[in-house]
C-alpha cells in the first residue's frame, strides 16, 4: 500500500512538472525553442487547428483575444480581436479591396465583381467592409457584390464638383447607394454640344459673257447672206424668217451675234446641323480585365 502511494505521488509530481514546462512535439527528438511554450517540428506533416463552421465559431462563449480557429464555410483562418472574428488577410489587402486581375480563374480569398448576391455570414469581413453599398440583397442575410462588368471605375466626387451629375447617380441594386456615394452607378452620356454648319454667302463670277457665229457670210463686195433662223442684230425680229441676201461692199467676213450673257448667282445656304455618325458608345482605347474584390 505504501508503495502504491509513493508511485501516485511520483506520477503527480511528474505531471505537474510537465504541465508547467515547455512542450516539444518533434520528429527529430529536438527540444522546444526557448521562446515557445509549444514547438511543433516536422518536415512531412502539418498541424491542425480546431475546425468548425461560422455558426459554431460565433457560438463560442467569451472567446479570448487571439483565439484562432479554421472556418470551413469559406476555408479561412479567423482570430478574435476582442470585438469580432477577423479573417487573416493574405497579401496585406483588407476586405473590400478591388483590384484588376489578368487571369481567368479568381484566386482564393477573392470574388468576381459580377453583382452576385452572397451570404453575410459566409463573408462577414467583406460585409463589414462594404455593407449594403452595392445592394442589400434580401435585406437580412445577404448582400450584393459590386457589378463592374463592362464598366470603368471613377473616384467618388465627395462634393468636389468634378462630377457635375454626382447627385443624379443611381443605385446598382435595391437599397444600394445612390448619389455621391461609393457603389452608385452612372449611365453613359455626351456633354451638351451641337455642330452648326452655316456656309458664307457667295456668288458666281460673270464669265458667262459670250457670242455665237451665224451660219451666213459676207463676201468681198459687201453682199451678206444670212440663212433663215440667223440672229437679227437690229432686234426686230429676233431672227430672220427666210434666207436674206444684202448687197454692200467690204472685205469678206463671217457674221457673229452680239456679246450677251453676263450674269451672276447669289448663293445663300441656310444653317443646318450635321448628320449623326459614330459608334455605339463614347470610349477610350481599352483592354479587358476582371475586377475582383477581397473578402
Which key terms come to mind for this protein?
295 residues; three-stranded antiparallel beta sheet; elongated; Seminal Fluid Protein  PDC-109 (Domain B); single chain; 20 strands; four-stranded mixed beta sheet; alpha+beta; 3 helices
What this model shows, in words?
The protein is an alpha+beta fold. Among the domains are: 1-47, no CATH class; 48-88, Seminal Fluid Protein  PDC-109 (Domain B), CATH 2.10.10. It has 3 helices and 20 strands. It has helices at 2-20, 54-58, 124-130; strands at residues 23-26, 38-41, 51-52, 68-71, 76-80, 85-87, 98-101, 110-112, 117-119, 142-144, 170-171, 184-185, 196-197, 202-203, 217-218, 224-226, 244-246, 266-267, 272-273, 290-294. The strands form 8 sheets. A 4-stranded mixed beta sheet has the order 3-4-5-6. It has a 3-stranded antiparallel beta sheet with strand order 7-20-8, with no helix packed on it. It has a 3-stranded antiparallel beta sheet with strand order 15-16-17, with no helix packed on it. Strand 3, helix 2 (54-58) and strand 4 (68-71) form a beta-alpha-beta unit. The longest helix is centred in the N-terminal third of the chain and has 19 residues, at 2-20. The protein starts with a helix and ends with a strand. The relative contact order is 0.12.
Biggest β-sheet: strands ordered side by side in the sheet:
3-4-5-6
For the biggest sheet, the summary is:
4 strands, mixed
Order of helices and strands: HEEEHEEEEEEHEEEEEEEEEEE
Number of helices: 3
Q: pLDDT average, as an integer?
A: 77
Distance between the termini: 64 Å
Oligomer: single chain
**Total E-strand runs:** 20
Proportion of strand residues: 15-25%
